[in-house]
Amino acid sequence: MDKTEIINNTEFKKWIQQLKSTVAATRNTIAFSLNSQVLALYWEIGKQIAEKQNKSAWGSCLVETVANELHVNFPEIKGFSRRNVYAMVQWYKFYATKYQFVPRGVAQIPWGHNRLIISKISSIDEAEYYCRKTIENNWDRDTLELQIKADLFRTEGCIANNFAITLPQTQSLLAEQTFKDPYNFDFLGLENDALEKAIEDELVKHITAFLLEMGKGFAFLGRQYKIEIGETDYFIDMLFYHVELRCYIVIELKAGKFKPEYAGKLNYYLSAIDTQLRKDGDNHTIGIILCKMKNKIDVEYALRDIQKPMGISEYHLTNAIPENIKPQLPTVEELEEKLKDDENE
């Protein structure tokens, strides 16, 4: 056979795909192993410096002295800047109150992620939570920072809902873990007086960021999704399918405060989706109302007698930066200098 015949051969296609999968898996294993080894080294460096700081009289310049020595003797190895070595010590001290060695979840995320976490988080339990979420969702550093800023640790699973009385226990628990309150839509660049259509338009334009904010497992099926009931057409703001919950998710977006009548209309939509789209193996459709604000008592009364699973959550948009704050923000030149420093580390 010539090259073209081999490439088009069915058996070859199947075999080469398996070979590619093997190479990809091995590459990932190598990357993971290398990252773990680097973090184990950083842990040891941080540990030894911390111990010397406690037992010797070498003073505050110890970190800088060690960084210079390592940089001079190992110029081919990046990461021995004074600031990075200082971060190793802080990182070790942070986890050493609970662990003797690098925690497994911590060792599975990149060093940049680790530095970000210890700079923003003061609790080991919370830090390990963000490590787990990073691994589960394959977050890059920017996404991790957004999730920390949105305080996902405290908001995940806090959505007002009736899941406990409308879903089986296992699905109810998963649904509570899937949704949160509030959602952070600052990536839209809209101010709080934005109208409902403008918010929906921008969410669709930024669908990747929207899906990241919603969390793992959401598949976007469409906006203004038309359903026909009798002789009338209705349009659902946004329709999703969740692969772990195995059900359709109806999202209704409201630009103002939650009103009890919203729950009744959403209940109507859920019945329609269950009747028209739900197939064997699908669980009952879940409805979520996203609004700018809600009253706890209004929500409790509105959900009390609803027989379909639904939740009500707030979302936050970006506020305009007050003029008196702007002078305190870094300049473009300062940001560029910061990026250069990070690259050198």
Compact description:
The protein has about 350 residues and is α/β, with parallel strands linked by helices. Helices cover about 55% and strands about 15% of the residues.
Care to describe what's here?
With 345 residues, this protein is of the alpha/beta class. The chain has 2 domains: 3-153, no CATH class; 154-316, Trna Endonuclease, Chain: A, domain 1 (3-Layer(aba) Sandwich). It contains 16 helices and 7 strands. Strands 1, 2, 3, 4, 5, 6 and 7 form a 7-stranded mixed sheet that branches. Strand 3 and strand 4 (232-242) form a beta hairpin. Helix 2 (10-55) crosses helix 4, helix 3 crosses helix 4 and helix 14 crosses helix 15 (296-304). The longest helix has 46 residues, at 10-55.
